[in-house]
Structure formats: C-alpha cells, structure tokens
C-alpha cells in the first residue's frame, strides 16, 4: 500500500472515531453467485461479542474537510488539523483490500460536508455502488445520511446499504444553534423522515413484488452528545422516547462530550469524559425498550437527572416501595421484570419454571437471578422475609451502589458500555 494511502487512512480513521452510532447489523444477506462477503444478523460492530468473538468494520470518513464550524467537532472548519480525502474508487478499493486480508467484515462510512449536502451524498453513494455493483460485495454497510440531502439520494443510498444514521448531535434546538450555528433540527429531521417514508413504501412494494430490493433492512440510528450543553436526562430521554415511536428507529446512542478542540467559551471545561452519565443513559434506554418502563417513571420534574450512584432500575425500585414485595411464584411477568437483579431472560425462565414447582432461592440462583439485588424486593418459597421493610432506602443504596462505575474510564476513545443488570 502506498505511503500516501496509509497517511490518508490514518487521518480519516482518526477523524471518524468519535462517531459511535454503529452497532449490530440486524440484517442477513447471504453470498450470491460469485460475490464476496456476507452480512450476518448476529452483528457487525467494532467491539467484542458476548462469546468473545471480535467482529470489526472499517470505520472511516470519505473526507474530513467540512464547510461547517461546529464547536464540539474535531473536523470543524476552523481547526488546524491534517486534512485528507479519498476518491470513491480509492475507498472502495481499500475496503475490499482490507476484507480480503480478513481485517474487516463491513464498512461504516461518514464524511465531512463539502460544497453541499447533495454533492457529499453523491460521492458517498459512489463508494457503495462500486462495492456492490463492481466488486459484488455483500457485506454490511452503514452509511451516514447528510442533513439537507435530497430524498432521491436518500432513497438511492437506502437501497444499497444496510443501515443509515443521521446524528441529532445536540438534543435541543436552542443549544444546537449555540454550538453549531450552521445547523438546525428541521434540516436534521428531514432525512430521518425520508428514511422512514421510503422504508414504509418499500415494505408495501415488496408485498406486491418480492424481488424489490430491501430499503435499509437494519433501519436507522442516531446519536446525541451529552454533557456539552445543559439538557437534563429527562429532556434527553423524552426525546429518545419520541424517536423510538418511529418504526424505522432502531437505536439512539449517547456520546459523552469529549473536549477535543482548543478553548471555546461556548463549551464546558471538563477534566473527564462523563462516562458514568453516558452509561446510566444506556441503562435507562434499555428500560424503555425492553422493560416496559416509560420516561416519567425513570426521570421526571422531581428527579430530572439519573442517579449516578445506582442504576436507574434500582433507583426506581427504591423510590417506589409500594410496588413491592413481588411474589416470584405468583406475580405477573411484568411485575417480576421490574425487580432489580432480574433481567428479561431470567423473568421468562421464572414464569416457565414455576409452572412445574414452587421456586426457592436455589432455583432462582440457577436461573441467573442476582440475589444480592433481588433479595430486598421479593418473596418466594423458603424466603418469606421481605427485606425492604427492614432496610432503609439509604442502606440499600449503599449496599448496592455500583462503585466501579464511579471510577471514570479516562480513555479518550468513546466505547459503548455493556449492560450488566
């Protein structure tokens, strides 16, 4: 590989690392005819799977030149940083070369905005067209949609890639205009609506003609920056809940603000990345999507921000003692799911197992219940004592608070934290 290409790769991979809105592909595509690569539903990501398998994608920008000057962005126009750009052919060739060497399994493609949104989208689409049509690459491709791009280009891209994302960046319009005066939420929401509309139309078209290519089969995602502005967790999660009502929205990612630029009075002065808050937001997001919670139960006007000392599920349980105890052998799946220390899988196993016999402590351990947490909130066969009655909320909080989370990871590269509760 030429030195010039290596230099471009280093610059543009570095410029792309702060965008975290990529994860499992959520789609499957088998290899066809003489094509190369495949996309797997089990996931393409830049992380490790639960079984320790490392899966990777080439996460890179087409160019880090940008006409905008967003205060929080390393690639902003006013920054004095090395700049580079690939031609579509160069980036497609690089992707295939890395795939053939078994370095990657897919591509995450973003770009700075050059000339106009449509001009930039056309260049990105050209990369994907070369991969799909010339190299017959069937692997996973995630592409950023550029705010302001036309619906025609959004539709063309969506028929070629697996997932598209449009980053909201800042949760409220007021603060977005403060930090990114060239942007507004209306322009950002426009491609989100186009993606959703095209996806719904594509579903109807496929009902009539099954050979119609799928439009973004893995849906869309977005990312918000937290800690750069003064939004409360309540505001952020209310926005998240609205976004999840869109049928095409699969994930909202939370990126703790990282001070990557020289001093700017519009930005907070931070010594550490707000990693604990970021993790709590991911846990609250899990409650919204899988645990049947609504936002007002997690945060509200009285408690506008998440408790950083304990996870949001435990925080809710401590604030709502009237909901407990939960009888493991009698109460509904929904009630059991709300017990700290019991996850979705454990709750389902409990409901199945109790059909055959009454469950005791040993049975709960075998199922995978974290009794250190659950013991304060449940009763079951051979466990009649309801510990929440004999323990103060402060005692429970101190006993179960997540100490390792308070030790903030100082690694400047953002990583999604794993839910362990």
TrEMBL record:
CDD domains assigned: Radical_SAM (cd01335)
Top-rank lineage group of the source organism: Bacteria
GO molecular function, one term: metal ion binding
SUPFAM superfamilies the record matches: Radical SAM enzymes, RuvA domain 2-like
Name recorded for this polypeptide: Putative DNA modification/repair radical SAM protein
Organism: Gilliamella apicola
InterPro entries xref list: Aldolase_TIM, DNA_rSAM_put, Endo/Exo/Phosphatase_dom_1, rSAM, rSAM_sf, RuvA_2-like
Residues of the Radical SAM core domain: 62-237
Cofactor(s) required, per the database record: [4Fe-4S] cluster
Alphabetical keyword list: Iron, Iron-sulfur, Metal-binding, S-adenosyl-L-methionine
């Amino acid at each position: 590989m030429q030195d010039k290409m290596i230099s471009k790769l280093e610059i543009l991979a570095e410029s792309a690392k702060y965008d975290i809105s990529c994860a499992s592909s959520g789609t499957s595509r088998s290899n066809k005819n003489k094509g190369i690569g495949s996309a797997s539903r089990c996931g393409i990501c830049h992380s490790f799977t639960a079984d320790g398998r490392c899966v990777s994608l080439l996460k890179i920008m087409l160019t880090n030149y940008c006409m905008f000057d967003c205060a929080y962005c390393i690639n902003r126009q006013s920054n004095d940083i090395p700049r580079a750009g690939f031609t579509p052919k160069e980036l497609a060739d690089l992707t295939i070369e890395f795939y053939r060497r078994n370095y990657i399994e897919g591509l995450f493609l973003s770009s700075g905005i050059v000339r106009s949104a449509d001009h930039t989208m056309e260049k990105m689409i050209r990369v994907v067209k070369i991969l799909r049509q010339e190299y017959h690459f069937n692997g996973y491709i995630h592409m950023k949609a550029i705010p302001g791009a036309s619906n025609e280009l959004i539709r063309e891209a969506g028929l070629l890639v697996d997932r598209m994302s449009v980053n909201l960046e800042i949760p409220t319009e007021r603060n977005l205009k403060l930090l990114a005066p060239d942007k507004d939420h209306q322009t950002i929401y426009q491609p989100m609506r186009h993606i959703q509309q095209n996806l719904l139309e594509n579903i109807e078209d496929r009902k009539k003609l099954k050979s119609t290519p799928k439009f973004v089969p893995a849906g869309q995602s977005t990312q918000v920056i937290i800690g750069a502005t003064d939004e409360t967790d309540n505001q952020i999660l209310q926005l998240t809940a609205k976004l999840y009502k869109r049928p095409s929205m699969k994930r909202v990612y939370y990126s703790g603000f990282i001070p990557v630029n020289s001093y700017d009075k519009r930005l907070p002065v931070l010594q550490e990345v707000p990693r604990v808050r970021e993790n709590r937001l991911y846990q609250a997001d899990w409650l919204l999507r899988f645990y049947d919670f609504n936002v007002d139960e997690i945060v509200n006007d009285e408690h506008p921000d998440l408790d950083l000392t304990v996870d949001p599920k435990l925080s809710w349980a401590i604030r709502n003692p009237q909901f407990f105890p939960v009888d493991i052998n009698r109460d509904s799946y929904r009630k059991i799911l709300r017990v700290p220390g019991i996850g979705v899988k454990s709750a389902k196993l409990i409901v199945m197992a109790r059909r055959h016999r009454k469950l005791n402590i040993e049975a709960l351990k075998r199922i995978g219940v974290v009794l250190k947490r659950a013991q304060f909130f449940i009763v079951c066969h051979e466990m009649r004592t309801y510990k929440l009655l004999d323990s103060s909320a402060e005692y429970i909080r101190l006993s179960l608070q997540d100490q390792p989370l308070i030790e903030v990871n100082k690694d400047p590269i953002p990583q999604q934290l794993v839910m362990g509760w």
